[in-house]
Amino acid sequence: MFDAMWGAIKSMKRENLVSLATFASVFSSYVIVDKVKEAIMTFEVMDQYGCPRDVFALNSLLSAICRDGRTFDAVEFLHVAKTRILPDADSYAILLEGWEKEMNAASAKKTFADMVSMVGWDPRNVPAYDTFLNTLLVGHDGLREAMKHFDVMKDRGCLPGVKFFRLALEECLKCNDIRAAMLIWETLVVRVGFRPDIKLYNLMIALHCYDKQTDIANKFFDEMIYNGVFPDSQTYNVLFQYLIKYEKLKEASLVFQ
């Protein structure tokens, strides 16, 4: 009932009731029924209804398109729109979230490069960095690719959010990559000052146990208690499994006590 919808919008215009929220609803309504072109056409005429076509309106349109799994269409439109409207960090964060949902690491790299070119590096742009690295993790050779870009971010004084650190440590465990795990841990705990939770400690303990470094695993065990994070059944199960496997029964008895 799009004709009726526009009739309502024209009535709203006469009463000066049209706002960005009105058009955000229209964008979503069109995209949901696979009418992306109509959503874009709506964006082009919204200023006729007293609503400016600024970066906030642009981001609202991009969000509606990406939310429905049409990130390619959003990127294509941004290439056209940015000659008239300068995109901001949020514009690219929206696109990167779209690529993360679609698990498209190759396209995420292109969008990230475009973002750096257009808006530069900004330590406040945590959501975009977090989303980008998370997308790389699911791509080909994901951990290596993510760590490569993570090093570049650190050099620029920019860091991702906690979600990436958690997912990256899980990937380190799968790949048995202690070097990358320790780099991530040092950045998270020492540089960012984040207080790890039980899940993060368990990941580090398991990683070192798998690599036969039970002494270091025990150090993490002691550290977590010192920092007020108390072990759960998973912590003990992993420690017992590998201390017994490596015939370190004395150490296992101490943990049991």
Please give the CATH class of the largest domain: Mainly Alpha
Poorly predicted tracts of residues: none
* Helix and strand run: HHHHHHHHHHHHHHH
Main beta-sheet strand count, sense and barrel state: none
GO molecular function, one term: mRNA binding
InterPro entries: Mito_RNA-Proc/Resp, PPR_rpt, TPR-like_helical_dom_sf
Protein name: Pentatricopeptide repeat-containing protein
Pfam families: PPR, PPR_2
Tell me about this structure.
α10 runs antiparallel to α11. The protein is mainly α and 257 residues long. The model has no long low-confidence stretch (mean pLDDT 93). The radius of gyration is 24 Å and the shape is elongated. It contains 15 helices and no strands. 74% of the residues lie in helices and 0% in strands. The chain folds into three domains: 87 residues; 106 residues, Serine Threonine Protein Phosphatase 5, Tetratricopeptide repeat, CATH 1.25.40; 61 residues, no CATH class. Belongs to the PPR family. P subfamily. InterPro entries: Mito_RNA-Proc/Resp (IPR051240), PPR_rpt (IPR002885), TPR-like_helical_dom_sf (IPR011990). One of its GO terms (molecular function) is mRNA binding. It holds the Pfam family PPR_2.
